[in-house]
Amino acid sequence: MMQLKCTRKLLDFAGIAPAPLPEANGTLLGAWHVNTEVVGRYRFLLFLNDKSLYCLVAVIPATEKTVPLAMVFRHLLASAMLRNGVDQAHIGQVGQEYVEELITKTDNRKVIGNLNDIFNQMCCFIENAMNENRPVDLPELEDHLNRIPQRNIGGRFSVDVFKEMLGAG
Questions:
Q1: Which residue in 78, 105, 106 sits closest to 166, CA to CA?
Q2: Distance from first CA to last CA of the chain, Å, rounded?
Q3: Distance CA 138, CA 61 (A)
Q4: From CA 156, how far away is CA 99, in angstroms rounded?
Q5: pLDDT tens digit sequence for 15-51
Q6: Can you give the pTM of this predicted structure?
Q7: Which CATH code for domain 2-165?
């Protein structure tokens, strides 16, 4: 079951009442933390994997009043797995595990800290792109964010841990 652990800000924005936290998440990738931030005229959604700290980024107009979180997440995850060379068997396995969804509140301050750090890195990336007068490519942004060494996973890159979890490392 896909578990998205949303911040209070995102739960309020999406108008979602969180479900109770389950005892364990036995999926291949585990649970994901999600936050939202508004930058200029856009609302960014950041999805961060609890185990690998791999992040996915979505953008919607800041004027949107709601967002289909599960649909956006599934699309981003499928694109990321294809971009990282994950084989069809593992993509199918994750797809089967993530048919049902569970949206809960956050429960891990360490992951929230990583989420905030990644958001700050994302803002710097966007600012640099704007200063260079070039568009922001979301896959390029995700690749950049996932190739920053993370102390919570032993100084490794999130993308490497993500690929190992999916048998593509």
A1: 78
A2: 24
A3: 15
A4: 30
A5: 888 888 887 777 889 899 999 988 888 889 999 999 9
A6: 0.92
A7: 3.30.420
Domain boundaries, the chain: 2-165
| The 3-state secondary structure of the chain, one letter per residue | CEEEEECHHHHHHHCCCCECCCCCCCCCCCCEEEEEEEECCEEEEEEEECCCCCEEEEEEECCCCCCCHHHHHHHHHHHHHHHCCCCHHHHHHHHHHCCCEEEEECCCHHHHHHHHHHHHHHHHHHHHHHHCCCCCCHHHHHHHHCCCEEHHHCCEEHHHHHHHHCCCC
Tokens 């911040």 map to which residue?
Answer: 7
pLDDT digits (tens, 9 = 90+) for 66-115: 888 889 999 999 999 999 999 899 999 999 999 999 999 998 899 899 99
